[in-house]
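Field: COMPLEX_INPUT
Field: COMPONENT_COUNT = two
Field: RESIDUE_TOTAL = 713
Field: MODE = joint
Values follow.
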Amino acid sequence: MITNSIEIILAIILLTDIVLVASSRLFHCIKITALQGIAVGLLPLFIWNWANGSPSLQLWITSLVNAGIKGMLLPFLLSKAMRQSAIKRELEPLVGYAASVFIMLIVIVAAFYFSKFMNAPATDICRFTTPTALSTIGAGLFMIIARRKAITQALGFLMFENGISVFGNGIGIEYGFIIELGILLDVLVLVFIMGITVFNINREFSHIDSDRLNQLGDYDHSKQK
Amino acid sequence: MLSYLTIILPFIFALAIYFCKKNEALARKLVLIAAGTHALCVILLLFFNKNAKLVLTSTIENPTLLGYDTLSWIVLAITSTLFIFCTIHSIAWIPVAKKLDGGNGRSEPMPLNVFYCFMSALLGSMSLVILSQNLALTWVSIEATTLVSAPLICYNRTKASLEAMWKYLLICSVGISIALFGTMLLIHSIIGASHGDPILSLAYLKTANFNSGWFKAAFILALAGYGTKMGLAPFHTWLPDAYSESPAMVSALLSGALINCSFMAIYRFTELVPADIAPFCQNLMFAIGILSVAVAGIFIVKQCDFNRMLAYSSVEHMGLILILTAIILLGDGSKKGLLPVLFIHLFAHSLTKMTLFLTAGNILLAYGTRAITAVRGLYKTMPTTGKLWFLGLFLITACPPSLIFYPELYLVLNAPLFVACATLLFLFVVFAGMMNVGVRMANGVPGDIEDSITEPRKLPKGVIATPLMAMSFLFIVSILAFITMLFN
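Field: COMPLEX_OUTPUT
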């Protein structure tokens, strides 16, 4: 029964991956990322073997804080940056949406295929955590590569981070309380700085298309001066 | 206790400096005190270690988060020295740069308290990387260094610096996250870990047995991830942009101190490599190292921006350091005695590169452009800076009596034939490229070729003092080392 609830959470994470690469409205994307963040944050509580009694206070705190930050605070920061830069859609992605979904499916198939080889003892928690983690990592990297807007790239980075955290939960790594919070703080500050940078990029360049950030290069510097 | 103090003090000072918004003089004093106390802590660490031999202080029985061995202490000392030089330079540099409009046209520089706050926080997070004895803590702290150094790149708040900052932030964060994935795979590859073991502690990992297939995957990911931050060749794309756009002291700190910290992480991983896959890992490190030197050589030869040229020189030296590490740690064990050579390379590269970046910053301030063609006749227009610049380029390309000469010599003598030949070939290319730039900029008459500037702005003596001091120190050490070598 417990295994089933883990599978439901993992299915939610996997579905949000697919929906994210297929949606063009930025606000929608941010909401989907928030949903994924909550699912990833609560995952340790579902992985916990409840037959052994209630989990420790530390686990409660880390997973609830994790879900709170990834599901509420980060989406709030990103949507604020989005409103300030007044950009609602990713209109011309470098890879079209239909093609994106197709590539995402290939990534998922590849992830399930590769994770067959990862037969370490620790993965007996649930056999679907590793493929889900690898798919989410792949989806995040794909978002960073295939989208133009700086905000969508930041979302891609968050997905990437979520994937790694699912993998860590799946193989049962315990960092300890301090480091767990340290990782969270890093992600939080990173997204905060990214939000400010997106706002500044928009102010200076009047767009946030990162593929048009090409002023710096190796050979044409003297010509521009 | 003392190692905790080394980390926490800079953060406390950072916080204090941030609240000195109105009182810029106090902010300057506080950042100097931060640099001084940090240096004091580092010196005390040398004298108050438990066994007086600088072996690792974190053990399996007592796996602490922090600890230090000889390498950590040396990298920490380098970081502290560089920070002192950079803060002293910044105190003279910032008012001049404000007066001369940032040296590169329109800019509204970052407030002084914010700048020094981030500088001090960068010192703290770099110390945390160096002293960390836990792989996850290493990851957290390296990410923290990215976060506090990103705003420093954007000091001038121009379009170009914003672009450089975004690239730095995104590329490095993704790279470092890949390294986190590598760390997890490393944990995954431990054979026979029981619940409750300190699996992330270095002391434990050094005695653990690894599944070699998974360790390979972990090592590749960690090398790619931390290699991004260190500026190794296929992952170096952010580096020239960031170094050329940030102010002189920040480029100096990033290239001299921060990439040593990322190197520490790679070194920690390399120490763990099991014997059966050591040849694979060694070849991988050789390949990436040679590629770094090659890329640097190619881009230095055709470079038209002197700051970017220095940035590519950092890529080159990181490649060399990687090759040297592979020879020392992953060979048959007979090369362990070469470890001091690695320390010499780290020390000499950091100090020389810092001097060069500070000097380049002064040239940029006087000429208002980073184009190599614009600068002619430095010997005539800025005699001291011209000499520093040429001497610096001479030392960084490892011409004797440069300290970098010895590591490169030992590298070529001890590497396999193909690696040695390839490295030597590209080292010549780098030397030719940098000397070409150095000679063109230092000699000639101002204005004798098209685009060159005839009347650079005059700089006060204060901004030249720090590079001059650093260079004198370096030169004396080099000469002493050279004499010692001659008589041995």
